[in-house]
Amino acid sequence: MIGKISGVLEEKNTHQALINVNGLSYEVEVPITTSFEMPEAGNKVQLYTHFVVREDAQLLYGFIKKQDREMFRVLIRVNGVGPKLGVAILSGLDSTSLARCVQDDDVTTLVKLPGIGKKTAERLLIELRDKVKLLLMPESEVGSTKELSFASVAVSIEDEAESALIALGYKPQAATKSIKSCKKEGQSLEDLIKAALKNMM
């Protein structure tokens, strides 16, 4: 199993990174939270990974924080939660925020995530309750985030943000409405997506 990948970040968007390791480039599926924490293209990056083999594909999932990868591994063992939904959950909530939801029995926040119904949320709370304490170690509160600059001329920040929300499972009309209501002058893509997600939740 591929547990960690280190190399030069060639490309990235809100859900995928292309990492060059000694001339071999790997496509890595990432949650939005990891995308925001990665450096700009051309810089070195290290991701903790989880390798998934299916009949029709081989997929590599990557996370900046090891605890996010461990939370992902716990999530995909929950009945009804596969890798795609696991990434969607960790795009809306990082492992620390998800742990707080579990500790507080916060069903309301979980059901606002795309693809999570009440039954799935309740199942997550039950199955994660005994595991989050082992997964999460004390960390400093949210650190400084790096403003992202996507080198795409054809795609506007609004379009990129809308695509990110749709990739997470939100309906196009709802994503467009939320993006428009949260857009501000000079706003970065990261801030726009965060504001839109908060608005939709």
Q: How many strand elements?
A: 5
Instruction: Enumerate the strands of the largest sheet in spatial order, edge to edge or round the barrel.
Output: 3-2-1-4-5
Helix-strand pattern, N to C? EEEHEEHHHHHHHHH
Query: What structural category do the secondary elements indicate?
Result: alpha+beta
Description:
Mean pLDDT is 82; it is low at 139-155. The chain contains 10 helices and 5 strands; from the N terminus they run βββαββααααααααα. It folds into 3 domains: 4-63, OB fold (Dihydrolipoamide Acetyltransferase, E2P), CATH 2.40.50.140; 66-135, 5' to 3' exonuclease, C-terminal subdomain (DNA polymerase, domain 1, Orthogonal Bundle); 157-200, Helicase, Ruva Protein, domain 3 (Orthogonal Bundle), CATH 1.10.8. The protein is of the alpha+beta class and 201 residues long. The radius of gyration is 17 Å and the shape is globular. Helix 8 (157-167) packs across helix 9.
Summarize this structure as a short list of keywords or feature phrases.
201 residues; alpha+beta; OB fold (Dihydrolipoamide Acetyltransferase, E2P); DNA polymerase, domain 1; Helicase, Ruva Protein, domain 3; 3 domains; 5-stranded antiparallel beta sheet; 5 strands
